[in-house]
Amino acid sequence: MRIGLAGAGRIGARHAETLRDLPEVESVVIADVDAGRARALAGKHAARAASTVDELFASGLDGLVVAAATDAHAELVTRAVESGMPVFCEKPVAPDIVGTLQVMAAVQRAGSPVQIGFQRRFDAGHVAVRDAVATGRLGWLHTVRSCTLDPAPPPAGYIPVSGGIFRDCAVHDIDAVRFVTGRDVVQVVAVGANKGEDYFAESGDVDTGAALLTLDDGTIAIICETRYNAAGYDVRLEALGAKDSLVAGLNEHTPLTLADGDLLEDGTPYTGFLERFSDAYAAEMRVFLQVVDGRADSPCPPKEALEAFYVAEACERSRREARAVTIEEVRK
């Protein structure tokens, strides 16, 4: 099959490498707003570069991977599904809820499958926790904890267009909580703080955030995020139940120093999400090819992304207004 790739940045480069190594893929066509960057990436992975998006869509594609800037996602996904093409799209579907609903309407009209890139759904640890919860091995859950701790903040220019730490970063933890528990979030209480660079506050954002989520069965979930975890990239999820507990992401790469000893294991911390979730990125792309081939339904349709977005929006509203916010408020 021939797969198109829109976007030649960090995540686009990761997907290009994965697609190159998958036997089902006969060719990859890459486009980017920077045509030179597309050519460079194509040359590195024996792919073909398209000079424009129009040329990309005219290349006889069987499926499209959207890894472009966030503000381009909605238009690319809509155009692809209206042409009958299956789409893989990195989160978010659109920068806001209204845009996401518009894309969902287009997807429903067209009937083409869309898979949203929440890669933690394909991480072996997160899948194992979900399976343990589903089988009742942990008993009833009382607490779920999930964190995303970045070793260093993104560039200052990224923050004003990021959507804020809850929509940009915490949305992965929110989706992970929903994925492993199989439950919906009904209420959030969120807080944030700024102790780092001034450009976070100048953009109305925070460099550290946390939220208490109440799930529809009464389970409590706690998520925390920061842009300043110099010890290393740290993503973990803990599910604590009446019978047992389980953690994903705790291994020799976890950047934790014991108060009464050395590192958890004398390993090297992950440098970032591309390294931490390397296997998950490959796994989700293999599944997408099954979706393209009609052998599988989308494992993460836009509706799932919308539900996570609602919760992230509620967290941001809660942080700004210093109050509990229900998800129903945001839906309205």
UniProtKB/TrEMBL annotation:
<dbReference type="InterPro" id="IPR000683">
    <property type="entry name" value="Gfo/Idh/MocA-like_OxRdtase_N"/>
</dbReference>
<dbReference type="Pfam" id="PF01408">
    <property type="entry name" value="GFO_IDH_MocA"/>
</dbReference>
<dbReference type="InterPro" id="IPR036291">
    <property type="entry name" value="NAD(P)-bd_dom_sf"/>
</dbReference>
<dbReference type="GO" id="GO:0000166">
    <property type="term" value="F:nucleotide binding"/>
</dbReference>
<dbReference type="Pfam" id="PF22725">
    <property type="entry name" value="GFO_IDH_MocA_C3"/>
</dbReference>
<feature type="domain" description="Gfo/Idh/MocA-like oxidoreductase N-terminal">
    <location>
        <begin position="1"/>
        <end position="118"/>
    </location>
</feature>
<dbReference type="InterPro" id="IPR055170">
    <property type="entry name" value="GFO_IDH_MocA-like_dom"/>
</dbReference>
<comment type="similarity">
    <text>Belongs to the Gfo/Idh/MocA family.</text>
</comment>
<feature type="domain" description="GFO/IDH/MocA-like oxidoreductase">
    <location>
        <begin position="127"/>
        <end position="246"/>
    </location>
</feature>
<keyword id="KW-0560">Oxidoreductase</keyword>
<dbReference type="GO" id="GO:0016491">
    <property type="term" value="F:oxidoreductase activity"/>
</dbReference>
<protein>
    <submittedName>
        <fullName>Myo-inositol 2-dehydrogenase/D-chiro-inositol 1-dehydrogenase</fullName>
    </submittedName>
</protein>
